[in-house]
Specification:
321 residues, mainly alpha, Farnesyl Diphosphate Synthase, two-stranded antiparallel ribbon, 15 helices
């Protein structure tokens, strides 16, 4: 079975040698620039690891795995426009370095490039791969819209929040793993188990991200706590705190969260602590991680070696320590 290091090396080589057309330069130079900014490459790596469960010949699986990374970068280019973000991975965003119209169009062409890469999937698997990817692309857009809608909503319930993070971030990881599995020769049932693993791991990871923003601890590397609180972002911690509060306390927390008081972060964290929100977040994380592990174990019971994927999932979850 392929190792994480080998999969990462294959993906970086594929990105480094991927040839965008030269012209028009105003379209392809920004796309090439953005793809070269780096990143963890978790989605394509997990796609190749999933393929490696079923085959030792990864060649037919590389371009579909790369499609997952290209699509992910398409979403980031457009996210940066919506957020008016000046930097991505420490470098100027496309709309900052060029302009908004260029960023929109270059993002669009990354989406089309992702489809072209997917067309290189094994012919017998192509209908299932395209159907899954198309559904996933739609869901990612739905999740982004829900996240934008949350900014205008006074109250967001926890189930709706979990649906949003599943759509916006988790389904693409699930799709990446299922695509790799299918291209590697898995049945649709087997691919679904890896989809579930990726989806549930992604939800757990996003809850962890919310947690670490408020409580960076050792995993925060000196990061100042409470960035989401300062930005008034509705997170798992905030939504759960409102659910655990009585009517009067919830009203006070809502007003505090919407304010720009100098000591807002400290006061909100005090409320979180009084409600034991850290434990609530940890329990929810572990609930979704357990669902991920159960899906993977079902595959293991069929005789497949899932050790590398299991270790990768555990390493991702260790980020909170």
């Amino acid at each position: 079975m392929v190792t994480v290091e080998e999969a990462h090396q294959v993906i970086e080589q594929a990105i480094g040698t991927y040839a965008f057309p030269d012209q028009p330069a105003g379209l392809y130079d920004p796309a090439r620039y953005f793809m070269g900014l780096g990143g963890k490459r978790i989605r394509p790596v997990m796609s190749l690891l999933s393929a490696g469960v079923f085959t030792s010949d990864l060649q037919p699986c590389i371009e579909p795995a790369l499609a997952m990374e290209v699509f992910h970068n398409f979403t980031l280019v457009h996210d940066d426009i919506m957020d008016d973000a000046p930097l991505r991975r420490g470098a100027a965003t496309v709309h900052t370095r060029w302009d908004i119209n260029t960023a929109i169009l270059s993002g669009d062409v990354l989406l089309i490039e992702a489809y072209q890469l997917l067309l290189k999937a094994p012919p017998e698997k192509l209908p299932a791969v395209l159907a899954l990817f198309t559904q996933t692309a739609k869901e990612v857009c739905e999740g982004q819209q829900m996240d934008m809608d949350f900014e205008q909503m006074d109250v967001v319930d926890l189930d709706t929040y979990l649906t949003m993070i599943r759509l916006k971030t988790s389904v693409l990881l699930g799709c990446s793993m299922a695509t790799g599995a299918l291209c590697g020769g898995a049945t649709e049932e087997e691919a679904q188990l890896l989809y579930t693993f990726g989806e549930q791991l992604g939800i757990a990871f996003q809850i962890m991200d919310d947690y670490l923003d408020a409580y960076p601890g050792e995993g925060g590397f000196g990061k100042k706590p409470g960035g989401d609180i300062e930005r008034k972002k509705k997170t798992f911690l905030y939504i759960r705190a409102l659910e655990l509060s009585d009517e009067e306390a919830a009203k006070k927390l809502t007003e505090l969260y919407a304010s720009s008081q100098a000591d807002k972060v400290e006061r909100v964290l005090y409320i979180f602590n009084s409600l034991n929100i850290q434990q609530a977040a940890t329990q929810k994380m572990e609930e979704h991680y357990k669902k991920a592990v159960n899906a993977l174990n079902t595959l293991s019971e069929k005789g497949y070696d899932i050790s590398v994927i299991s270790e990768m999932g555990a390493a991702i979850m260790q980020r909170r320590h």
